[in-house]
Amino acid sequence: MTQLNRRQFLSSGIAIAGGGALGAFGMPGTASAAPGGTAAGPPLHIDSHEITRGWTYAAADGTALSGDRLASAQPVAGLKPAVVPGTPLTSMIAGGEYPDPLYGHIVTDTIPDTLKDTDYWYRVAFDLPRRIPGQRFWLHFGGINYLATIWLNGTEVGTVEGAFTRGVFDVTEIVAKADGKAYLAVLIGKLDYAEAPLKPSYASGVTRGGRNGGPTGITLKNGPTFFCTAGWDWLPTIPDRDLGIWQPVSWCTTGPVRLADVHVDPTLSQDLRTADVSLGLTFDSAFGSARTVLLKGSLAGRRFEHPVTVAAGTSSITLTPADLSTLHLDRPKLWWPNGYGEPYRYRLTIGVESGGQVCDERTVDFGVRRIEYRRPLESPDEGTVDALAITVNNQPILVMGGNWGLDEALKRIPRERLFEQVRMHREANLNLIRNWNGQSSTEDFFDACDENGILVWQDFFSSTEGPGPADADRDLANIRDCIVAFRNHPSILLWCGGNEGPPPQPIIDGLDALVAELDPKRAVLTSSAEDTGKDPIAGYSSGGPYHWVTPETHFAAGDGTHWPPFHNEVGSYSIPTLEFIRKMLPEQSWEHPDDFWADRDVNGNGGNDGGAGYLALTAKRYGEVRNLADFARKSQLMNYECIRSIFESHAANMGTTAPGKPYPRTGVIMWMTHPAQPSFVWQMYSHDLEAHSSFYAVQHACRRINVILDSASLDVVVANHTGAAVGGTVAVTLYDLHGTAFADTSWQVPAAKPADRTVAGNLAAPLKTSPTDIAFVRISLTDPHGTELVRTFSWVENPARPNGFTSLDDAAPAAVSVAATAQHGRDDLELTAEVTNIGRAVALTVHLQVYDTQTGERVLPATFSDNYLNLAAGESSTVRVRLSGEQARQTGNLGIRIDGWKIDQPASRLHGRGVAVTFNQPALATHPTTKTFAG
Which family does the similarity line name (predicted)? Predict the structure, then answer.
């Protein structure tokens, strides 16, 4: 079998190997030389080496294999090549035993569910470095699922329990007896509690029996694992339950003293002018008595040296600016959430020397910021409470976030893919990701959030879908290790016990105690539904809706009259593009919704009466669905109007209280933004990272300065998320169905205060004068100098005769001009498209794709600066997309293709220089002679 590179990012599909590189003991990678110089002779410290090649595996049940034999040079028959990091199923798919079950298949019909019912052996051999006297050798396991027993060179080393804890083992004595070769064997233990799979059923109208977590939810008794793989309303039952070595395995060496942990804890002053850094160091010393060692390192370009006394065994010390002046920062650069400033990170390097030799080193990137969590609000039942409201660096932040259920269904998540997913959240103008039940907790994930300015609501491992864990101590041990491993990341906003309900009381008490001990500056919530701690934070909830509702429904719910003001789960259907629907379903199902659709989550949580109900709702709102292409294009409008309103309804009602509106919005987290598998629901881009209309709905709704049409009141609201007042002129033009302007108005807007909103005017009266039952609304905000700050475009029902949008099919098609160019850079390629409406009809949801002109395949990821464009007659938009040099080289023949609601192809003009520009004929073929869609 060809050795797989887990770092490879498969831009046109999905990656088949998972995980992400961790430095030694879970910290970022380090250099092997001491700051300020190197010791004579070979170094005692060798940085982390990931063991990626040569792994094999086999099911353990029914075999006579043993750890001592596998961890030796003896040949063993029956082992197959393994993907590590990965799961048994990813190895089987890579080896050709099964097709990818998420594409064109029903998972539980394709792969036997018995994969979960066995333990698994893993085996690998690797070369050892030449040992130096005084050198210690360490094995590091970044994460296994579910239980692991480890052997090295015939000797049992230890165990790891739970999916979210690391294993660090001193194997110096074993390695000292080796002859340059190490033989490693790992027994992965199956779940203690498992049950039969949940089956998809389109006809039922609910996803997989209407259950989450398996038929009874018993899988939650296992404690920390990927319990969602038992089956959820957004994830099929995964046959191996994602068992395996899902994070990297590595080795490193140190001298007699190891830096077991480095905790960097900055305190930013109230005026933001200074920061004092506390440095907590934990040592593991092999010396038999206390020794004085030398700490050497640098921070913000300033070097330091400091002697400390280290006790034998494990010990800890804390250093402050009183000990090291380097730890005091004047006018520090700050870490800001996305859209508010640069997410700046400082780099601390620190090494420990003994006898002139470097024993160990660490590099830690950290951010300086201060967070406040509470805002006093008068609640309807409890009087004044501390409501959840986030302020970062004295700037109130309206949380606009997305939930992640799982980074990828089969844990195929190389670092490059994960960074791309988080980058897309940044590009969508989001500022937070909720790591639902901690299912995506990796160093790579938090690194990506740090880099992109994305706050993290970090859940832990409890859910109301089943019983609590049978081993609460194991759960708490995994929680402890997560806090220690990740607390240096500035992106982590808060810790949360779990999903939608309180964990068992021992875990509540244990979590509160762990945060108080290990990370007391961060807030800790009991669950995503309610906080029952000693000093509780109120004013937030889960609860949906999780299905499609009208924009008016969201605006009415978020109008400032309903408690609570922070909503952490609300979502909708989110249908992908025609190309991806065809990719994820077998051809016989394209026009005939069935159980293949159900395995791709089309029933959602049963809202809208499941997939059949959603299809009927689409037809009622936008007209009869004629074929799959027609379903895809109508769904893009359904996506856009509902998902945009989730965020705009909160932005239009944030900030200060108003008469009759005592509960201004403080945050909303969409359920969900990221899909774990190919899906019809709860996402803003596809599993293959194609951004569809939902993505641009989020991007447009979450702009830091926005002008919003409140669908319920028809107020026009200026929303200002920034730290400076924003005012100017709001101009509105109303068009009828045929693209003819029938009204316009403008208002001089008093400045909206920082982190606040102001109402500019109301459009109820002029909209009633529309000569058609649909009106298009263009709104722009210009500053006092005449510079346009933001423009929005909406389609609305005439409030005098609301009748949905079925008459859009009667509108004339739009004529567009698209002129595209390609500009090669040193390491990338930028495509630019100037899109102009050259006709009279409104050009609605004009959609651009980058594709390979030879194969017809989409080039992904390719997130445009804007897409699904809405242009009145004469309006233009410049769209840019940046591709990597590797993408450009791989395709060689790049093109841009165009589709949209209705396009007059003969009257349109397409032109490209260095890039082909064509119409997307399959997506535009929405009017078959006879209806072919059976939904």
Answer: Belongs to the glycosyl hydrolase 2 family.
Look up residue 179 and give its DSSP letter. Answer: S
482 pLDDT band (50/70/90 cuts)? very high
Pairing mode, if any, of strands 566-570 and 667-674? parallel
CA dist 3 and 165 (Å) reads 27
Contact present, 197 and 187 (Cβ < 8 Å): no
Q: 41: pLDDT confidence band, cut at 50, 70 and 90?
A: low
Sign for the pseudo-dihedral over CA of 488, 494, 495, 499:
negative
- Cα–Cα distance, 395 to 486 (Å, whole number): 25
3-state secondary structure of 417: helix
Instruction: Report angle CA 557, 562, 567 to the nearest 5 degrees.
Output: 70
Tokens of 275: 């920061």
Alpha-carbon radius of gyration of the chain: 29
Element (H, E) at 614: helix 610-622
- How far is 233 from 599, CA to CA, in rounded Å? 9
711 near 643, Cβ under 8 Å?
A: no
Query: 614 exposed, middle or buried (CB, 10 Å; 0-12, 13-18, 19+)?
Result: buried
pTM above 0.90, yes or no: yes
Distance CA 280, CA 362 (A): 13
Q: What is the Cα–Cα distance from 414 to 7, expressed in whole angstroms?
A: 5
Residues in the chain: 935
How far apart, in whole angstroms, are the C-alpha atoms of residue 918 and residue 818?
9
Q: Which strands, in side-by-side order, build the sheet including 155-161?
A: 80-81, 56-59, 120-127, 181-189, 147-152, 155-161
Q: Quick one: CA dihedral 636, 641, 646, 648, positive or negative?
A: positive
Task: Quote the DSSP letter at residue 482.
Answer: H
Q: How far apart are CA 8 and CA 2, in angstroms?
A: 14
CA-closest candidate to residue 751, choices 767, 736, 729 = 729
C-beta separation of 371 from 391 below 8 A: yes
Q: Which residues contact 203 (CB under 8 A, 6 or more apart)?
A: none
How far apart (Å, rounded) are the C-alpha atoms in residues 606 and 544? 12
For 52-94, what is each residue's pLDDT tens digit? 999 999 999 878 899 999 999 999 999 999 999 999 999 999 9
Q: Which residue type, as a one-letter code, is found at position 383?
A: G
Dump the DSSP string for 320-379: -TTT-GGGEEES---B--TTTS-B--EEEEEEEEETTEEEEEEEEEE----EEEEEEEEE
Tokens representing 281 are 């160091």
Q: Could you report the per-residue pLDDT of 97-116, keeping only the tens digit for each?
A: 999 999 999 999 999 999 99
Non-local CB neighbours of 74 within 8 Å, separated by 6+ positions: none
**Adjacency order of strands within the sheet including 455-463:** 523-525, 492-499, 455-463, 432-435, 399-404, 667-674, 566-570, 540-541
Rounded to whole angstroms, the Cα distance separating 132 from 42 reads: 8
DSSP string of 91-151? HHHHTTSS--TTSSS-HHHHS-GGGGGS-EEEEEEEEPPPP-TT-EEEEEE---BSEEEEE
Residue whose entry in the numeric block shows the structure tokens 């029956």 = 78
The answer to whether residue 686 scores a pLDDT higher than 80 is: yes
CA–CA separation, 35 and 351 (whole Å): 7
Give the integer Cα–Cα distance in Å for 706 and 720: 7
- Please state, as a whole number, how many other Cβ atoms lie within 10 Å of the Cβ of residue 371: 19
Candidates 523, 271, 519, 491; CA nearest to 386 is 523
pLDDT exceeds 90 at position 586:
yes
Rounded to the nearest angstrom, the gap between the alpha carbon of residue 930 and the centroid of all alpha carbons in its chain is: 42
d(CA 688, CA 341): 30
CB 360 within 8 A of CB 616: no
Residues 425-477 have pLDDT tens digits of 999 999 999 999 999 999 999 999 999 999 999 999 999 999 999 999 999 99
Average pLDDT over residues 129-157: 96
